[in-house]
Amino acid sequence: MSSPQFPESSPVTDTSSRKSQFTYRHLCQLASFAPSCPLRVVAHIDLDAFYAQCEMVRLGIPEDQPLAVQQWQNLIAVNYPARGFGVGRHCTITDAKKLCPNLVAQHVATWREGDDKWAYREDAAANVASDKVSLDPYRLQSRKILQLIKETLPSNLQRVEKASIDEVFCDLSAQVHSILLERFPELRSPPPHGDLTGRLPRPPVVALNWMADALVDLDEHAESQDPDWDDVAILIGSEIIRDVRGQIREELRYACSAGIANNKLLSKLGSAYKKPNQQTVIRSRAIQHFLSDFKITKIRNFGGKFGDNVTSTFGVDTVRELLPVTLDQMKLKLGDDTGTWVYNTIRGVDHSEVSSRTQIKSMLSAKSFRPAIHTVEQATRWLRIFAADISSRLGEENRRRPRTINLHYRHDGQMKSRQAPIAQGKALNEQLLFDLSRTLLNQILSEGNVWPCMNLSLSVGGFEDSVVGNMGIGGFLVKGEEAQALRSSAKDPGFPILPGRQAAKRRRLDGAGEGIHRFFIRHNTTNDHNASETEDNAKGLEDLVPGDPVTGLRNGNEEKNEADGASSESSECSRCGASFDWPQSLQSHQDWHLAKDLHDEERGQSRATIHPPASARSKGPSGPAPSSKRAGRGGKMEHGQRKLTFGGS
Ligand code: CTP
Ligand code: CA
Ligand code: CA
């Protein structure tokens, strides 16, 4: 007898309708964090008004008290009560006080010459020339929060990636898998006939309890469908995250928001969707609905010229309008890789991994000078501070030691640097770093003019990886967590890593040790990108549109924060079209281009894969994929680069 619903159906059809759309193989993939698993559960956790909360917790300030974190005359973080008065990150301190007379404005801690430790100082705002911002207090809180997250999740089933100073990605797949098997014994039995392609039984039809989650509405056609295992999986993920957030709140008194979805792209959009103190769940059947209303340029990697090119090429503004464009049309206009990537991304497809195996590659302490500095004495004072800053951060890397030190300076519109090895065997302390940096400064001075100097920075790199091999995943995270933020952001916010590129990137990063061979070689270059590209990339990546909760990944970046007299005028990179809201962001981005050119030249190679910092937003998904305008110095195309054929050609 046919059922009335399936007048023509045979019993076979009827049976399959009671099967899940997912297979035993999908279930296995879940246990092994396979990025392409359709049951995958990824969460993104982002602290609300992070620096502001740090100050509130530190000072024991009541939750409803408006508070902003001040840096010189600007605000860099504004808590939600203050946002209620219209105070925002763009406000000056004067405007903010007008809007909210009751505002507590707490200046960030600073380093000051002569002190061997950063401190909160009453007079910091008036000392932009002599002080350097310290984000150490926030790093410390960040580290505690990360640690707690890792303690809350089962150690053998977690994958946690620090994405910036106040955000992490968690791949919850393996934990969800284990909870699924626990709760649904029917999933424990082996597939009939050992056939992994066989479909799973459907989950029991029970009302799923989403508690207080913000649920993104389902796609229209999907509303009538019964829940399948992907819904159950994401619900479990959501329970896990509610627990994690509860722990963070209870133990450390921080509020955060989270997005739970089946990949990083969506979970990141989800955490920004409802703030503060909320979590948003984007079920796979809700993805289209969720993404459709986004402006294309708000999607990660679609900012800047790249996004503009996509919108103008197809004459569209929103994701919804771009959806009807076929894959073939996309490929035709954007090239095969970029076209495919765009096609997938606007459909919420993202197979990038949550990677906990990130290690610090370099550390950088920097200061931009407006006005420029002109004397050795001035420079030396800053070297003292950089040495103290790096030395205190190195303390957290206890067992890993950098092998090289670089001094970078900006003179005459160019970033240049000098490198030296750090001799092993000696205690690596502030004094040693200071002495080495002075040696480098003397070298630079003996070779040419440095003054006026617009930027000075000290970095260490080439960290020994001696403990890497046998360290548990958990071990990495506590240690180079800052680096993790840097490296993750270098990789993540900007660049979709297309298949096959990840390994190349890893190899490149692993080349960190090569720098040591360049013993006192005169670089007409900026950075030793072997050692410091992660750091530099992160710098730039952070300078994404301030205040944009969707695309902007900002890591609490000192260089940016030292925006002395920053203006809000926007500027564009003439080489790749990336746009910046802060002139110094553009500057550091252009430094990156220069560094990369020199690096490529120096190494006599043509890798197209080192990612520019903020310009990431303006790029095609296959990395630089530059137009000829964006190619290396002199506009020449690098091997492996392809032209984007915007507008058809
Ligand atoms: N930050 C910064 N400079 C920027 C952007 C951010 O110094 N241009 C710092 C902020 O102080 C912030 C932290 O980085 O506290 C994290 O940034 P973000 O998550 O973007 O903003 P939040 O202040 O945490 O606010 P939200 O609640 O929207 O996440
Ligand atoms: Ca935040
Ligand atoms: Ca953030």
Automatic annotation (TrEMBL):
It is found in: Mitochondrion; Nucleus. It comes from the Eukaryota. One of its GO terms (cellular component) is replication fork. Keywords: DNA damage, DNA repair, Metal-binding, Mitochondrion, Nucleus, Transferase, Zinc, Zinc-finger. Residues 571-604 form the C2H2-type domain. Residues 530-542 have a biased composition (Basic and acidic residues). Residues 42-303 form the UmuC domain. Residues 523-577, 597-649 are annotated as: Disordered. Gene3D superfamilies: 3.30.70.270, 3.40.1170.60, 5' to 3' exonuclease, C-terminal subdomain (1.10.150.20), DNA polymerase, Y-family, little finger domain (3.30.1490.100). InterPro entries: DNA/RNA_pol_sf, DNA_pol_Y-fam_lit_finger_sf, DNA_pol_Y-fam_little_finger, DNA_polymerase_eta, Rev_trsase/Diguanyl_cyclase, UBZ3, UmuC, Znf_C2H2_type. Residues 566-601 form the UBZ3-type domain. One of its GO terms (molecular function) is zinc ion binding. Residues 612-629 have a biased composition (Low complexity). GO terms for biological process: DNA repair; error-free translesion synthesis; error-prone translesion synthesis; mitotic sister chromatid cohesion; response to radiation. PANTHER family: DNA POLYMERASE ETA. This is DNA polymerase eta.
